[in-house]
Amino acid sequence: MKTERTLLLVDDEDNIRKALTRVLRRDGYTILQADSGKQGLAMLESNPETGVILSDQRMPGMTGIEFLSRARELRPDTVRMVLSGYTDLKTVTEAINQGEIYKFLTKPWEDELLRANLAEAFEHYELRFENERLARELQQINAELEQRVEQKTCEALVNMHALQISQEVLEHLPAAVLGIDEDGLLVMTNHQAEARLSHDGYSLVGQAADDVLPEALLEQIKYTLRGEVPAPIDIRLGSNTLHVHCGRMRQTSRAKGVIVVMMPKESR
């Protein structure tokens, strides 16, 4: 929906204001009129929705430059324009410096050119608010993103701490624990597993299960990977008999593979 556009005309000559109103009414503006700078300031005070001001320069009591300078202090977002029959350089310079005018137009005016300049002034005014709106939205989005990043960072720290605790627990278990992926590679071991299965001093992680594990255990792993639930078995490693359980990685882990837990027979 198009925003209503409010225009303030300030000129001490009644016929000028009426002529301007006739020209500009067709553009759908809400047109406010004031016959002096003092009345113009009062109109601005009571009509904060005013977007564009078009003021004469030579008026009794308060010049257009003085009025626009005070209008800038009162309503800094307004787009301020001068319409004057006097265009000496000093007047134009003062208008620009004191009133921060958008354009200095001359009398007599060309209707279509005046209408085009005012339409452009309103677009300039509305663009400021659109930019402010977008800036607020961007600020809100950034704040939400920062909050999400902070939340995700906290979750990551909690998960990392939980993982460290889990690893610590695994290292202190009296059982050997292995993780084997679907390709048959060892992807996780604890200290007990390394002590029982590694004989050359190298880590078991990254090695093929076929090169490390006994045949009976490899068969159990194959059954488990096919979705079967094999019964626990006992295997012999050196002088030790180990009770072995195999289970699929699932639920809390996105990985696919087999977890192997080997407990000394005498500890059962």
From TrEMBL:
Listed under GO biological process in this entry are: phosphorelay signal transduction system
Pfam family of the protein (one): Response_reg
Q: What SUPFAM superfamilies does the annotation carry? A: CheY-like, PYP-like sensor domain (PAS domain)
Gene3D superfamilies hit by this protein: 3.40.50.2300, PAS domain
Residue ranges annotated as coiled coil are: 124-155
Every Response regulatory domain range = 6-122
Tell me the keywords, alphabetical order: Coiled coil, Phosphoprotein
What name goes with this protein? Diguanylate cyclase/phosphodiesterase (GGDEF & EAL domains) with PAS/PAC sensor(S)
Natural source organism: hydrothermal vent metagenome
